[in-house]
Amino acid sequence: MGGPAMRVVLLATALLAGLGSSASAQDMTAGSVTGLPIPRYVSLKSDRVNLREGPSKEHRTRWVFQRAGLPVEITAEFETWRRVRDADGSEGWVLHSLLSGRRTALVAPWSKVKDETFPLFGSANDGSSVVARLQPGVIANVTSCANAWCHVTVAKMDGYIKQERLWGVYPNEKVD
To answer: What is the pLDDT of residues 100-128, one digit of tens each?
Structure first.
């Protein structure tokens, strides 16, 4: 059973693994292809990445991401394909070569308050000086996270933001 029947079984397993809600860091399992944790966050390498209905180029393109560096969550693996979810909950399959292990995060993409901004502090402390105010949806490069704070860079600024204000890192996840 190494031909098409095996492929169907593997595909069904990959699809089932991609169902369900976002897991916490302690619920991670190893990916069947890479052995890396599932789920995990990665980012898009390119300004044009097709999100497909299934794990092949024959599947219809559901969406085209047009933002390099955008964080996505890998929820399943199948051969050279990764099932991903974006901050809005859209899911589909992306070719692995279009993904990067570079950690990025979106600043409060869930915020619906007009003109809301979030402080970027000079140190991991609410009492430290605010070096910038970040709008929802800004992509931040994640340098590290510990003790509920993440050190990030945005453009040429760097500072600390509370981990709970980012989509692209798990609650209490330590990033080195």
So the answer is: 999 999 999 999 999 999 999 999 999 99
Give whole-number Cα distances, 161 to 43, 57, 119, 127, 164, in Å.
Answer: 19, 39, 7, 12, 9
The model's pTM is 0.83
Would you say 48 and 64 are in contact if contact means Cβ atoms under 8 Å apart? yes
DSSP assignments along 49-73, one per residue: EEEESSSSTTSPEEEEE--TT-EEE
CA 140 to chain centre: 12
In which domain, by residue range, is 156 found?
A: 106-167
Same-domain check for residues 35 and 68: yes
In three-state secondary structure terms, 136 is coil
Question: Are 24 and 82 members of one domain?
Answer: yes
Number of domains in the chain: 2
* Maximum Cα–Cα distance across the chain: 63
Tokens of 31: 């990916």
Phi, psi dihedrals of residue 145, rounded to the nearest 5° = -140, 135
Amino acid 68 reads A
| Residue in 47, 123, 127, 32 with CA at minimum distance from that of residue 81 | 32
